[in-house]
Automatic annotation (TrEMBL):
It comes from Desulfatitalea alkaliphila. Residues 1-255 form the Pterin-binding domain. GO terms for cellular component: cytosol. Keywords: Methyltransferase, Transferase. It comes from the Bacteria. This is Dihydropteroate synthase. GO terms for biological process: methylation; pteridine-containing compound metabolic process. It holds the Pfam family Pterin_bind. SUPFAM superfamilies: Dihydropteroate synthetase-like. GO terms for molecular function: dihydropteroate synthase activity; methionine synthase activity. Belongs to the vitamin-B12 dependent methionine synthase family. Coiled coil: none annotated.
């Protein structure tokens, strides 16, 4: 599982201030930290950046690449001018791995301008399944949006292999059925867009539940999505357990979750407390257990 580090983000007080004040040191420290923690990509998230994004994004890109020249970047802002300005100055990394535009919505006013940028600068892009009416209601609406955007990209000369489909993760505590819908959509991707890659904003699954419950929700759902074919996630580089699972160091957790998705209910009494917690979390995400903030205590 490839990991796209999410912590170089304007919503962080420290990083947001560094962006505003053009203070390179905290930004570079965070980039080096993400590399040390095993991230495969670094996401630079400016948010809307409506006022000065066209100046800020290329500056941040250059600052990050000064200290981490060998990791590909994901350019994350809704400001198209900022994306274009960054693409003009970004340096390709020694391995040749393309940088990523994060992301292009399935809205003509967005993709008609942004897809040509991806083609011109040989960038990969994340295809975000957010359509004219917002969040898709189910996996079939996700599939229809996926076909629309990938067809347009293919016509522009971009092959599926350079496209990372993001079906959109939503909070499990308020939209539990959507967690299952995304898994079903994930299984459909090889048929509707052969060769396309996939990713997601993983931490959205735990957006809302108490802070201490967020890691196990993120970790469990990542494995569930991996079972359905997910190839990467945008993740928290500070979650060492999640990184260990993603890098194949906790096969026991993966085997438990895969088994449950295949219909095998484990003997809870025979599991350690740690493994019981993962089993309970699978049942919450699948809707077998009604969500509450105390599901691990039941």
């Amino acid at each position: 599982m490839l990991l796209i580090g999410e912590s170089l983000n304007v919503i962080s007080t420290k990083i947001g201030r560094a962006f505003k004040e053009r203070d390179a040191k905290p930004i570079q420290e965070e980039a080096l930290f993400q590399k040390e923690k095993g991230m495969d990509y670094i996401d630079i998230n400016l948010g809307p950046a409506k006022k000065d994004g066209h100046e800020l994004m290329p500056w941040v890109v250059q600052v990050v690449q000064e200290v981490v020249p060998d990791l590909p970047l994901a350019l994350d802002t809704s400001n198209i001018d900022a994306i274009e300005a960054a693409l003009k100055v970004i340096k390709q990394i020694p391995s040749g791995t393309p940088h990523i535009i994060n992301s292009i919505m399935v809205r003509p006013e967005r993709y008609e301008r942004m897809v040509p940028l991806a083609a011109e600068y040989n960038a990969d892009f994340i295809a975000l399944m957010w359509g004219p009416e917002g969040l898709p209601r189910d996996e079939n609406e996700r599939a229809a949006l996926c076909v629309e955007l990938l067809y347009f990209a293919n016509e522009a000369g971009i092959p599926n292999e350079k496209i990372w489909v993001d079906g959109i993760v939503t909070p499990v505590n308020i939209q539990q059925p959507q967690a299952i819908s995304l898994m079903e959509f994930q299984k459909m991707i090889p048929d509707i867009s052969p060769g396309a890659r996939s990713t997601c904003g993983l931490s959205n699954i735990s957006n809302g539940p108490p802070e201490h419950l967020r890691p196990i929700l993120n970790q469990t759902y990542m494995v569930m999505l991996q079972k359905c074919g997910m190839q990467s996630v945008i993740s928290d580089p500070r979650d060492d357990q999640l990184t260990a699972i993603a890098k194949g160091q906790r096969q026991d957790i993966v085997d438990l979750i895969y088994g449950m998705l295949d219909g095998t209910q484990p003997d809870m009494a025979g599991l350690s407390k740690e493994m019981q917690d993962y089993a309970k979390t699978v049942n919450v995400i699948l809707g077998n257990t009604l969500y509450s903030d105390s599901w691990l205590e039941v």
